[in-house]
């Protein structure tokens, strides 16, 4: 932590769906920057389009918003589908929400995942079990809300 030396442990030369969402949320052209870096252009040589070119691409502006991405599970549509989620499970989609705080962005994302839900609501009279928290299922977030 006291030196300015860095070591690259792993390089993943691809842009995932999350990268596209991050680029959309911030306006920062991640794919453009990644392509330039792959061509040998150094990060300090690229101008930051978000700041109108006033700074370099490695400039990190202060953000006044929070972006949340939530997967959308549609396991209820598949008869006999196993509802316990694992590392290999693939969602059928995802939503991205932007808010001034994590709580605001998360509420917006939950409402977009299922328009029938108003977001986190009190579950008065419902018993919460240890399994509701311990076992990762597509409905766990609604149980602990």
Molecular structure report:
By secondary structure, the chain is α+β, with helices and mostly antiparallel strands. Helix content is 28%, strand content 10%. It has five helices and two strands; from the N terminus they run H-H-E-E-H-H-H. The longest helix has 12 residues, at 102-113. The chain is elongated and about 60 Å long.
Q: What kind of oligomer do you see?
A: single chain
Helical segment count? 5
Strand-residue proportion: 5-15%
- SS-based class: alpha+beta
> Using only CA atoms, what is the Rg?
20 Å
> What is the 3D shape?
elongated
Q: Which consecutive residue ranges, at least 5 long each, have pLDDT under 50? A: none
Number of DSSP strands? 2
- The succession of helices and strands, N to C, reads HHEEHHH
Placed side by side, the strands forming the largest sheet appear as: 1-2
Provide the helix percentage.
25-40%
- Main β-sheet description: 2 strands, antiparallel
Cα(first) to Cα(last) distance is 39 Å
What is the averaged pLDDT score?
80
């Amino acid at each position: 932590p006291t030196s300015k030396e860095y070591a690259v442990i792993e390089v993943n030369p691809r842009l995932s769906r999350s990268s596209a969402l991050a680029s959309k949320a911030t306006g920062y052209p991640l794919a453009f920057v990644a392509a330039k870096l792959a061509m040998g252009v150094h990060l300090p040589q690229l101008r930051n389009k978000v700041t109108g070119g006033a700074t370099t691409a490695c400039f990190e502006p202060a953000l006044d918003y929070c972006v949340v991405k939530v997967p959308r599970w549609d396991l209820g549509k598949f008869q006999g589908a196993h509802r316990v989620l694992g590392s290999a499970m693939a969602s059928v989609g995802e939503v991205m929400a932007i808010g001034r705080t994590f709580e605001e962005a998360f509420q917006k994302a939950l409402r977009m995942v299922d328009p029938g839900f108003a977001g986190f609501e009190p579950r008065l009279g419902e018993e919460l079990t240890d399994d509701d928290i311990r076992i990762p299922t597509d409905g766990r977030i609604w149980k602990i809300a």
